[in-house]
């Protein structure tokens, strides 16, 4: 088994208080890194901090309230990381959520909100952490993207469109930052069990239907070849690979974590 020691390195995970971000923070801590997570909701952040500290009692962990859409919040988060750790080696742009809407029911304001979320959740943290990444020995940025970027769904028209745009953004960033040795990659996920799917389960499941039955039925209806939702850890492992030197010769690229849903060759 390949083992990687990240002692002395710092990983920043936006949206680290739940789902994929929380699982990713756990992997970094397990490998010995210091970790900073952020989210908007203070209670969720505290719960995440408590669960990570219970699993990793020696964890060097910073949990900060920060809305990645607020420039001042993001600047304050980067300042907290600088003051606590003095460096950032890896940035995972993960914060966000999807929007279920068709063209017919997406108003202008909803389009603006969705485009702002998808673009600025990458742009703001990247800009704020770049000065520290530039000082790191093997810096990297990884963005959580969706298979919708390549395989749009009409029922998620705005998210699909924004995801395609940010896939292009990641490629451009990779090109611009390669001369500075900063690698930039993304993962394209299908459906991963997480907070947002738990919330949908609570509103959409039949009375008495279990989480397992509900997700299995959805996986069947959505023709997921591997027959199930992904687990946050499975997305986190791909993020970990792209963030660390395990992928030292990879930039401007993406990994598919969709359970076989991608139809292209
Ligand atoms: P969760 O809802 O479990 O986690 C989302 C995390 O992001 C939470 O920590 C949340 O905390 C945080 N967050 C959301 N908005 C902001 C914001 N504006 N500023 C700071 N933090 C924020 O969902 P997932 O783990 O599934 O989502 C992770 C990423 O994966 C998202 O970008 C999502 O769009 C993407 N994705 C997920 C898919 C899936 O099937 N799960 C499919 C495709 C993409 P808080 O709410 O407290 O701010």
UniProtKB/TrEMBL annotation:
CDD domains the UniProt entry points to: BKR_like_SDR_like (cd05344)
Protein name: Short chain dehydrogenase
Family label: Belongs to the short-chain dehydrogenases/reductases (SDR) family.
Organism: Caballeronia choica
Domain Ketoreductase residue range list: 9-195
Pfam families: adh_short_C2 (PF13561)
Domain of life: Bacteria
Lineage: Bacteria, Pseudomonadati, Pseudomonadota, Betaproteobacteria, Burkholderiales
InterPro entries named in the record: KR_dom (IPR057326), NAD(P)-bd_dom_sf (IPR036291), SDR (IPR050259), SDR_fam (IPR002347)
């Amino acid at each position: 088994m390949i083992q990687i020691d990240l002692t002395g390195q710092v990983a920043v995970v936006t949206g680290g208080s739940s789902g994929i971000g929380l699982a990713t923070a756990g992997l970094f801590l397990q490998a010995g890194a210091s970790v900073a997570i952020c989210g908007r909701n203070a209670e969720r952040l505290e719960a995440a901090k408590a669960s990570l500290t219970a699993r990793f009692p020696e964890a060097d962990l910073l949990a900060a309230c920060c809305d990645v859409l607020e420039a001042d919040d993001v600047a304050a988060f980067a300042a907290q990381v600088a003051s606590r750790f003095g460096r950032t080696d890896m940035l995972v742009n993960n914060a966000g959520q999807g929007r279920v809407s068709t063209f017919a029911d997406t108003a202008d304001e909803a389009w603006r909100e969705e485009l702002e979320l998808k673009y600025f959740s990458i742009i703001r943290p990247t800009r704020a952490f770049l000065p520290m990444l530039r000082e790191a020995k093997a810096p990297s940025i990884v963005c959580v993207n969706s298979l919708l970027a390549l395989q749009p769904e009409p029922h998620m028209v705005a998210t699909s469109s924004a995801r395609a745009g940010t896939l292009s953004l990641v490629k451009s960033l990779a090109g611009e930052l390669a001369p500075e040795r900063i690698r930039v990659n993304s993962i394209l996920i299908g459906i991963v069990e997480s907070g947002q799917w738990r919330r949908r389960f609570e509103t959409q499941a039949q009375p008495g239907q279990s989480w397992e039955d509900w997700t299995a039925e959805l996986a069947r209806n959505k023709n997921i070849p591997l027959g199930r939702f992904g687990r946050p850890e499975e997305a986190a492992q791909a993020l970990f690979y792209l963030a660390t030197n395990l992928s030292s010769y990879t930039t401007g690229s993406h990994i598919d974590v969709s359970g076989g849903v991608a139809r292209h060759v």
